[in-house]
Amino acid sequence: MTRLDQQFAFLAEAEKLKSVTRATPIHDASRPENSGEHSWSLALYALVLADHAPEGVDVNRAIRMLLLHDLVEIDVGDVPIHSQNGAAHGAPEIAAAEARAAERIFGLLPQEQGAALLDLWHEFEANESADAIFAKSLDRVQPVLLNHLSGGGSWVEYDVQFGQLESRVGQKIARGLPGVWDWVKAKVEPWFAARDRV
């Protein structure tokens, strides 16, 4: 195969991300979001919220991470963070399946290009570098806002309590974007309070 054959093989495989259904609905609750839409949305979040990135963050690098981070869902599917059934989000067996998927998918590219993108994917997953922490925080913000816009979305389906949201998601957002989490919390906490009063 030529270099171009390999690159287009990878791009054709990446199109499959548009067929992966997520737990979070789109803004108007008319249907679930797909993982391709999620990745595009996160790249836009990074671009627009760049001025909130901590000092030293390379926003363009974070955007590359966000465009790549969920490609493994082509093989593994979406594992909702609030799901109570089946394999849990972040479980060792899920992490191992995602690592195998990353090797396969990035392995479609020419060797040096695939290795560089695989390294970027591993950096995002490790969530230790400033770029990865910023990107991972955005990955947690976007579903929260979609659930809020859609009237509760997957929070209703999984009977999520605000304490769960704060511990599973809020702390991760606050790690890289504390001011953004404060803003988001002020928007969503009243929704939970109103629901709990009913």
UniProtKB/TrEMBL annotation:
What keywords tag this UniProt record?
Hydrolase, Metal-binding
State any single GO MF term.
metal ion binding
Residue limits of the HD domain? 14-181
This entry carries the following GO cellular component terms, namely: cytoplasm
Coiled-coil residues:
none
Pfam families on file: HD_3 (PF13023)
Gene3D superfamilies for the chain: Hypothetical protein af1432
* Name of the protein in question: Metal dependent phosphohydrolase
Please name the source species.
Thioclava atlantica
